[in-house]
Amino acid sequence: MQSRWWSIGGSLMVGLFVAYLDRTTLSVGLPSVARDLGFAGDRFAVTASWALTIFLVGYAVANVLGGILTRKYDPKTVVIWSFAIWSLATVIVGFTDSLAVLLGCRFILGIAEGVYWPQQSRFAKAWFAPDERTKANAIVQYYGQFIALAVGFMILTPIYNAFGWRIMFFLMGGIGLVGIVPLYIAKLRPESEAPYRAIAPTQATIPRLTLTALGGYPFLLLLLSYITQGMLFWGVTLWIPLAVRSVGFTGTCQAIASSLPYLAAVLLALPMSRISDRTGRRVLIAALGLLIPGILMMLLPVVDSGYAKLALITVALGYYASSYTPNIWSILQSTIEPQAIGPASGIINGIGAGGGGTLAGFLVGVLYKSTGSYMSGFVVLGALVILGGIALLAYGRIRPARLSTPAQIETVRSDAQTG
């Protein structure tokens, strides 16, 4: 078998790269989409907030239900069908002149990507050893996500400027259908071949999903921290092209400025992952990944220049993403029962990213309408994410012990499997 780092980790990384480009196409093309679909002008702030966040509404619902309802299905099958569905929805957006169709397709995008997301934790848990998981999560989930954001605005903005928003949607949906779906069919392996897979229960013995299986009440503190990080991430990411333009960056500079926070995240990810795996201080590192960025975001009103504001946002997002994001999944995977990995990932990402992101998208949009500044919303996000850091520190004081046992995990592995 090919190295699992390339066949599993590499394929999923490329897939998530494309998935995040699909998510951000609307943020890039929003001014023209608003004009062509009739919600520019006075309707822009509220309608644009709906257009940007309806993806996250579907994403929230599907993460929770998708993680639970797909437990008996092989994750390979689930990710292939999910990718095909949302790629088709992305292509349809390029054809439409209807706001309702746009909203419907973005909702479908959220549903399909919400079902897809928990499967990545199932792959990471089944194919990589516990002492490899921060690195594995960084590859499977992190690098695809943040490389897409680091270069995505610089890729999508020139395409949008040269060919318009419709071609941009056609192109991104087409890449998923003719590129990623065949890649997954060829390279991903069924869970039954994985060296660290949980012993599959029969249909009659699939355990109930309980709070105990999720790690008990401390799981709620993890969830709270993830809600606040979801608000920080999506509140900034959905609006950053317009936010950097509002402080003086236009044209190519706007694309570069929009990408800088995520480029910083990519550059910092590998050293932070190594520190986490070597020290095992994942909870502390993840908590600082919320506390420090929160303080930096609250300093935005103190500085006047657009460059200074961009620097604060860049350092805050880069440090948060490299310190919190890879570690939280390793923490989750080491404190809950193996059969609850998919559902738990769906619950925490659905409520945290989907729910928190939806609230943040509207929060920034509404505060922009009332104050004329995107920065006012960013400051509020900073205050909220500090609360998330405090919750994670509290979790570190009372977190449950590792629940995985030799009886629950098959550790049979061959040289070919380990790569």
From TrEMBL:
Stretches assigned to the Major facilitator superfamily (MFS) profile domain = 8-400
Matching entries from PANTHER family are given as: FI19708P1-RELATED, SOLUTE CARRIER FAMILY 17
UniProtKB keywords: Membrane, Sugar transport, Transmembrane, Transmembrane helix, Transport
- The protein depicted here goes by the name Sugar transport-related, membrane protein
What's in the GO CC field? Answer: membrane
**Where are the annotated coiled coils located?**
none
SUPFAM superfamilies per record: MFS general substrate transporter (SSF103473)
UniProt keyword annotation of NAD present: no
Going by the entry's taxonomy, the superkingdom of the source organism is recorded as Bacteria
Question: What is the recorded membrane topology of this protein?
Answer: Multi-pass membrane protein
Naturally occurring in which organism (per UniProt): Caballeronia udeis
Q: Which GO terms describe its molecular function?
A: transmembrane transporter activity
Q: Where in the cell is it found?
A: Membrane
Which parts of the chain span the membrane according to its record?
45-66, 78-95, 101-118, 139-159, 165-185, 206-227, 247-270, 282-300, 306-325, 346-368, 374-395
